[in-house]
């Protein structure tokens, strides 16, 4: 059994960073499965970096209970067989991992944030991967999740701590017999963190939900009617009434509002074409300046 190394002299420790100093003073030991392992648990590490400081001396690296969001950032660790990443925030797995950790046999991603089936596709190039755990990730709720993973990782022996059976391999092969079938199935999975409001808008669904359906239809109908009225040409009587109101308007704002009404033919509420009041800018004598009665 290898002896545990004496702790290195304490160096500067950067919160949330996987530094060479942290690597040098972290516990290193022979695990119960005879893997030489380094314990980097619970250091609030946000990204995998500086693992070159391990000098490719470990069979297992334990990065559990940190804040890692992406599986990437590895140097060439040809000896690494086991990677423990449970209880992090992993949502993405980088492509090309086979170049840096080609001997990886076990990957534990329990209790992370992997959402979609296609998110596990980069693992397909790890030819020696036999043990995988995605337990506690949202991806587990996707239809045919287990069969999809088995179809992508044909060498897998244990998935989510359950042995992969031959009948599962046969079912996976039958269901995902082609790359097109895999792509279609993966793209049809719902992503929980996508913008629900945007999805509803694209689907033509009101944000208020089903209970507002009738009201929304009525409002749409009213808006359509108003739009139709607005685009119709004003009648002769309407034009006379609006022009008279413009002539007697007291402010620029009122003139602009009335000119807009002249364009649309939609009379403001204070203007009538049947002999009533014709504008807020009327004279003091009853608010009926000359020319405002047209009917």
Automatic annotation (TrEMBL):
Keywords: Leucine-rich repeat, mRNA processing, mRNA splicing, Nucleus, Repeat, Spliceosome. Coiled coil: none annotated. Residues 200-219, 266-295 are annotated as: Disordered. Residues 276-295 have a biased composition (Gly residues). It is found in: Cytoplasm, Cytoskeleton, Cilium axoneme; Nucleus. Transmembrane segments: none annotated. Residues 142-160 form the U2A'/phosphoprotein 32 family A C-terminal domain. GO terms for molecular function: U2 snRNA binding. InterPro entries: Leu-rich_rpt, LRR_dom_sf, RU2A, U2A'_phosphoprotein32A_C. GO terms for biological process: mRNA splicing, via spliceosome. It comes from the Eukaryota. One of its GO terms (cellular component) is spliceosomal complex. PANTHER family: U2 SMALL NUCLEAR RIBONUCLEOPROTEIN A. Belongs to the U2 small nuclear ribonucleoprotein A family. This is U2A'/phosphoprotein 32 family A C-terminal domain-containing protein. It comes from Chlamydomonas reinhardtii.
